[in-house]
Amino acid sequence: MQYGLNDAQEMIVATLRAFVEKEIYPHEALVERSGTVPDEIAAEIRRKTIDLGFYACNFPESVGGAGLNHLEFALVERELGRGSMALTHFFGRPQNILMACQGEQVDRYLLPAVRGERMDALAMTEPGAGSDVRGMTCTARREGGDWVANGTKHFISGAEHADFVIVFMATGADETPKGVKKRITAFLVDRGTPGFTIRPGYKSVSHRGYANSILEFDDCRLPDAQVLGEVDGGFEVMNTWLYATRLTVAAMCVGRARRVFDYALDHAATREQFGQKIGKFQGVSFQLADMITEIDAADLLTLAAADRLDQGLPANREIASAKLYASEMLARVTDAAIQLHGGMGLMDDYPLERFWRDARVERIWDGTSEIQRHIISRDLLRALGA
Amino acid sequence: MKVLVPVKRVIDYNVKVRVKADGSGVDLANVKMSMNPFDEIAVEEAIRLKEAGKAEEIVAVSVGVKQAQETLRTALAMGADRAILVVAADDVHTDIEPLAVAKILAKVVEAEQPGLVLCGKQAIDNDMNATGQMLSALLGWSQGTFASELSVDGDHATVTREVDGGLQTIKVKMPAIITVDLRLNEPRYASLPNIMKAKKKPLDEKTAADYGVDVAPRLEIVKTAEPAARAAGIMVGSVDELVQKLKDVGAI
């Protein structure tokens, strides 16, 4: 890994930091209060992102993306992580899995998503299948040459704005020595398909305005043309294209932690108690030292994992470490920042209580901390036959 | 028409400036530096002239330390076509005085033959507000300063100037030096395609000696001090009390 960013990468960071400060921060209080993003603000963010050439910057140039490498894309996510997720959602980064589109799917889904004309969402989680993805009960069965889907998905981020959803369904099962193993297939499902309903989900303590939806499939008929990847090849598409989404969580945690840290540092340098700046008290200054050390460590873990991907090296364990450490670091940093602010830190006049609430979900979604620890330890022990 | 845009690398406007302990100046070590915001407005205006078909080429130029090439890359990423870096100091704390910068710029103008020089009205670091005017005098070109509106028509330009208490509109003969004010435009962000293109755009490196200009300082900074700390305010209970307090201090 080469340390330090090149000129272009520095400029990507500078541009996005200015963009997030000027185009995202001013709308955050409104989103927090109302719990929604007004359509005109969403449209404005999307238009400005397209004008800036950053829309779908995670896609290769061959399909109209910007062709950023993993490291550069991690920088993008890191800077966006400073702002409200409800708003940065419209700084569109469609799911990489759309690269699995074949034939006419390219014109119907992939290219419009990259151009910002159609928005996507990804649906995997079910009420009875969280970390245990293979436990899914949503099924699609063969009937008259089509697929007929039934079941419920929940916690589906961005579905309320989605024009189509990438949905994983069980399409069969195999007897294996370890028991029954479900076969999974990915489908592209358009909003408005008969038998497919998107309804509002739960109110979450984290990321107000970044809604989750419940998707219901009731004899929803899907032709073969809607299969993404191969029939029964859902895990293959998942593994080929979704391996790096955990890294985006890590990167966003780092960006948000830096924003939180700036509040803490400023407060320590200006707030006076007992006749001096509170930063003069070692109890406060050592806390700041620990915070920045952890933030820098999480930043380096994240960029190093991205760099491994760019070099084509195995990075599964490194990505898991980055996601685990960055999300747990964010919890500690937001908690410490509130402690440092005292009572005012809990009031919604300051954004700190929001950062603290938002931090909680990062240890749960895209693989809980426990799943990340499982991935890391299995990677080490499997090689030793344990 | 070719447009020359001089840009300066200055302390970022978001940075809380700290005076060096010995009062000799401002601490610039490990401080975030950016393009002077007024120069950003000048770059933006040049790009708009090009987009409107009134300019063919935009050349950004910076006089200062080697690190100013980062500032020039930003100008290139915004949309300038090429850049010239004139290295005139090694130490980031060395500020090249307006007259020296203007003399170098006059030589650059001689070599490049632009039809228009667009520059910020002043740099936010030491607020000299002199380089544009000095350049105009050295070249014998017309000048329009503090521009809040600009239109270029063939052999002349119409400039709306922000002057004390109002606006003044003047017509200047081209070629001209126009210094720009805050309200002229809102600079764009560097787009991702332009950021990627910027590294391939030419950036020539020169030195002050190449232009035969002596940049030794003529001015002596006697002392640099922080502004006086703002005194604590008081809470008043009513409008009447506020009026009385204002009368007491002779404010009304």
From TrEMBL, chain A:
It comes from the Bacteria. Residues 121-220 form the Acyl-CoA oxidase/dehydrogenase middle domain. It holds the Pfam family Acyl-CoA_dh_M. Residues 233-380 form the Acyl-CoA dehydrogenase/oxidase C-terminal domain. Its cofactor is FAD. InterPro entries: Acyl-CoA_DH_CS (IPR006089), Acyl-CoA_Oxase/DH_mid-dom (IPR006091), Acyl-CoA_Oxase/DH_mid-dom_sf (IPR046373), AcylCo_DH-like_C (IPR036250), AcylCo_DH/oxidase_C (IPR009075), AcylCoA_DH/ox_N (IPR013786), AcylCoA_DH/ox_N_sf (IPR037069), AcylCoA_DH/oxidase_NM_dom_sf (IPR009100). Residues 7-117 form the Acyl-CoA dehydrogenase/oxidase N-terminal domain. Keywords: FAD, Flavoprotein, Oxidoreductase. GO terms for molecular function: acyl-CoA dehydrogenase activity; flavin adenine dinucleotide binding. Belongs to the acyl-CoA dehydrogenase family. This is Acyl-CoA dehydrogenase. It comes from Seohaeicola zhoushanensis.
Automatic annotation (TrEMBL), chain B:
The keyword Electron transport applies. Keywords: Electron transport, Transport. GO terms for molecular function: electron transfer activity. Residues 23-215 form the Electron transfer flavoprotein alpha/beta-subunit N-terminal domain. SMART domains: ETF (SM00893). Gene3D superfamilies: HUPs. InterPro entries: ET-Flavoprotein_bsu_CS, ETF_a/b_N, ETF_b, ETF_beta_N, Rossmann-like_a/b/a_fold. GO terms for biological process: carboxylic acid catabolic process. Its cofactor is AMP. PANTHER family: ELECTRON TRANSFER FLAVOPROTEIN BETA-SUBUNIT, ELECTRON TRANSFER FLAVOPROTEIN SUBUNIT BETA. Heterodimer of an alpha and a beta subunit. Belongs to the ETF beta-subunit/FixA family. The electron transfer flavoprotein serves as a specific electron acceptor for other dehydrogenases. It transfers the electrons to the main respiratory chain via ETF-ubiquinone oxidoreductase (ETF dehydrogenase). This is Electron transfer flavoprotein subunit beta. It comes from Seohaeicola zhoushanensis. The gene is etfB.
